[in-house]
Amino acid sequence: MDLSAIQRFLTEEKVDGWLFFDHHRRDPLAYRVLGLSTATVATRRWYYLIPATGEPRGLVHRIESSALAGLPGRMRVYSSWAEQREELQRMLGGCRRVAMQYSPQCAIPYVSMVDGGTLELVREVGVEVTSSANLIQYFEARWTKANLGCHLEAGRRVDEIRRNAFRWAGDRLREGARVTEFDVKEFIRESFTRAGLVTDHGPIVAVNENCSNPHYEPQREAHREIRSGDCLLIDLWAKLDAADAVYYDITWVGYCGAQAPSELVNVFEAVRGGRDSAVRLVQDAVAGGRALHGFEVDDAARSYIRERGYGDYFIHRTGHSIGAEVHGAGANMDNLETHDERRVIPWTCFSVEPGVYLPKFGVRLEVDVFVGEDEARVTGEIQERLAPV
Questions:
Q1: Quick one: 208 and 235 in the same domain?
Q2: Residues 118 and 248 placed together within one structural domain of the fold
Q3: DSSP collapsed to 3 states, the chain
Q4: Total domain count, the chain
Q5: Domain end: 75, 108, 140, which one?
Q6: Last residue of a domain, one of 140, 167, 201
Q7: β-pair type (355-357, 348-352)
Q8: Residue 350 has what pLDDT?
Q9: How much is the pLDDT for 149?
Q10: What are the angstrom distances between the C-alpha of 336 and each of 89, 159, 216?
Q11: Any idea what the CATH number is for the domain that residue 68 is in?
């Protein structure tokens, strides 16, 4: 935990303090920001306040008095509910406005970790609660040089596996052998293991109308055969099996045959143009030193696709933050599911993945964009045409 940096940011945000709260480890963000051990027992509620100035202070239950061990500041204790309220009010003395892991109307679910009753309790002791979304992005979503190095190496390995997966499926088809979505999924998972990569689930391997289910995943007992003339979508994400690892997350689309139908080509070109419009906006803004917000990136991709008549078929946000979890806690490229007003800041990474999902097939093209101090770049290979299968 970088206490001085947190306090400096609190002063800039005009917030009196950052109040952390947990019970039964419901807020993993708190543990990562504070540097608390993942083995910490939390069967009773604890609170920890970092004020904009002065020494931090905590509140823990008497039977778990070491819950915040190692953190700076004085720790008060409580046992009864009445004592808890009294000590919380004392701990928050001098604060008029604190940030918590809360998002108004749950607009940013990745940050909305504090339950409604705890918000009521803090407000009832006379303190206004504001969202910690900007703080979380700054202290949780920014990468280190080690993170970036892990991401680039994971990207190199994942890109090779993606190429091999399309090639393997194509070879099977040309041999006249039966190949299914699940077969390709298993090929990718086994390739991840051999390459020293790990993932939480997936990948997505889908043909035709299954491509239009953005979170479709073939199962052993429920999948489709891949045949000549099919549209084949592969969405795969993984990270190195290492301490500093962060995810690499991409989606490519191919056609099983010599000549793709014009309808598929037209949709591919619309999605590709939307992706490239969003990436170009980010790169131009970063190079020019202009503030950029997540919703603006979504607008760039969505406007391009809407102008080509496919706006009603683009049913999700343009992109998500990427970190140690594939869906990270930084700004999302979103003006559909939420109006994400968080700034796109240096040393963060996110996906750009517009999609068009028609009844017969769907196309999604996903790249990862890393934002540095004065430039933004796509971190892996970029699909420019339908992959031949």
A1: yes
A2: no
A3: CCHHHHHHHHHHCCCCEEEEEECCCCCHHHHHHHCCCCCCCCCCCEEEEEECCCCCEEEEEHHHCCCCCCCCCEEEEECCHHHHHHHHHHHCCCCCEEEECCCHHHCCCCCCCCCHHHHHHHHHCCCEEEECHHHHHHHHHCCCHHHHHHHHHHHHHHHHHHHHHHHHHHHHHHCCCCCEHHHHHHHHHHHHHHCCEECCCCCEEEEHHHHHCCCCCCECCECCECCCCCEEEEEEEEEECCCCCCCEEEEEEEECCCCCCHHHHHHHHHHHHHHHHHHHHHHHHHHCCCCCEHHHHHHHHHHHHHHCCCHHHCCCCCECECCCCCCCCCCCECCCCCCCCCECCCCEEEEECCEEECCCCEEECEEEEEECCCCEEECCCCCCCCEEC
A4: 2
A5: 140
A6: 140
A7: unpaired
A8: 98
A9: 97
A10: 39, 29, 21
A11: 3.40.350.10
- Tokens 């090779």, residue located: 160
Q: What is the pTM of this model?
A: 0.91
- Quote the crossing angle between the two packed helices 145-174 and 181-194, to the nearest 10°: 140
Residues 248 and 210 in one domain: yes
Statement to judge: residues 303 and 350 lie in one domain: yes
Dihedral sign of CA atoms 140, 146, 149, 151 in order = negative
Do 91 and 196 share a domain, yes or no? no
Q: What is the pLDDT of residue 37?
A: 82
How far, in Å, CA of 336 to CA of 334, rounded?
6
How many beta carbons lie within 10 A of that of residue 83, not counting itself? 15
Q: Are residues 269 and 307 in the same domain?
A: yes
Q: How far apart are CA 114 and CA 48, in angstroms?
A: 13
Task: Retrieve residue 97's tokens.
Answer: 């406005």
The CATH number that applies at residue 195 is 3.90.230.10
Amino acid at 71: L
Low-confidence stretches of the chain (pLDDT beneath 50):
none
Residue located via tokens 């999902």: 357
CA-based nearest residue to 139, from 316, 2, 14, 314: 2
Convert the pLDDT of each residue in 289-343 to its tens digit. 999 999 999 999 999 999 999 999 999 999 999 999 999 999 999 999 999 999 9
Q: Which domain, by its residues, includes 252? A: 142-388
Q: How far is CA 272 from CA 99, 286, 329, in A?
A: 39, 21, 26
